[in-house]
Amino acid sequence: MDDQAIPLDAETKAVEMPEDHREELRLWLRLLTCTTLIEGDVRRRLRERFDVTLPRFDLMAQLDKVPDGMTLSDLSKRMMVSNGNLTGLVDRLVASGHVVRTVSPTDRRATVISLTDSGRAEFRTMAAEHEFWIADLFGDLTARDRGDLMRLLGKTKLSARRAIKGEAQ
Amino acid sequence: MDDQAIPLDAETKAVEMPEDHREELRLWLRLLTCTTLIEGDVRRRLRERFDVTLPRFDLMAQLDKVPDGMTLSDLSKRMMVSNGNLTGLVDRLVASGHVVRTVSPTDRRATVISLTDSGRAEFRTMAAEHEFWIADLFGDLTARDRGDLMRLLGKTKLSARRAIKGEAQ
DNA sequence: GGTAATTGTTTTAAGCTTAAAATAAATTCG
DNA sequence: CGAATTTATTTTAAGCTTAAAACAATTACC
User: Fold this and answer.
1) Burial level of A157, CB count in 10 A (0-12/13-18/19+)?
2) What is the dihedral angle through the alpha carbons of B130, B69, B54, B85, rounded to the nearest 10 degrees?
3) What CA–CA distance (Å, rounded) separates B9 from B19?
4) Chain B residues within 8 A of A38 when measuring between CB atoms
5) What are the structural domains, with CATH classification, of chain B?
6) CB-CB under 8 Å, A139 with B158
7) pLDDT digit string (tens) for A54-113?
8) CB contact under 8 A, A134 and B19
């Protein structure tokens, strides 16, 4: 009778203390706070210093990685934003002379977006300064902190991707 | 002559390898990726499951923490968004019956925003499920990972705040 | 070769977001 | 007390963002 106390307790615990996930919630909120803080600062500096928005900077950053542009769909995947969103963003960057649209020679549906020479030059000027802002924002972390954080965020990224894929409805 | 090799090398290194901050940049991009992934998933689930947007959920989350509502300015500070943004957000939540506006009894400029009873009940239903989504998204991290990440993000938050304050123009 | 399904992009409608200007009430301080 | 400043909110104009629908070109495959 009483020797069943242990398994019963374990059972009771499982029922009365179904795991609570407040810790994960706090972790998520802190992650979001860090991103919001840094992003807000970068956004403000880009505007004040170069009169450019963060989405435009991000788009140019993707294009600067490749020599000859990429399609809207590629941009969309890499930037993790919708296609429709990019249409307008590219419109504005074409209007300001930073990028150009070219019909893909191999697929007449597809548009290749590329930086103009001046667009690339302007981006690189901004990017060089941007790098210092980021270095300053993370400036109080040691090299070890940065390594650890990088690794843990890598693990978080994989975990999130796994969870998202798993939802297949 | 040759015994000056060491200081000269150190000097040379400092000149030819002015610190590059690509590591911090990668760290920032990874942080942003994690946030974007998780936020996108939460946004989609809130819409599909409860037909609510993330900003509305966030606003209600702030209000649920207090018994009697808070002013628009308080909400603005806590949510790290502009006042003007909240005006419209509150308008829509008033229209849907989730919150109410009351003129502050002590300051006729200020509006106190509070959850209605049904708004609070509805929020708590959503929040309970939301907690599981977050737990799942972070599910592959060990308790130790979560603790480490929490600490490192805490340090990051302080570092960013220090950098932002320091910019006082 | 011709329909069907897929892929690439744009459009649409709605909502979110910001900075800056405007409005209005409270506070400061001469 | 009363003008000047500060604080709380709203309005405005512009841009960002998404999901869903529409459109157009390509690919699959019978």
Assistant:
1) middle
2) -170
3) 15
4) 28, 31, 160
5) 54-138 (1.10.10.10)
6) no
7) 999 999 999 999 999 999 999 999 999 999 999 999 999 999 999 999 999 899 999 999
8) no
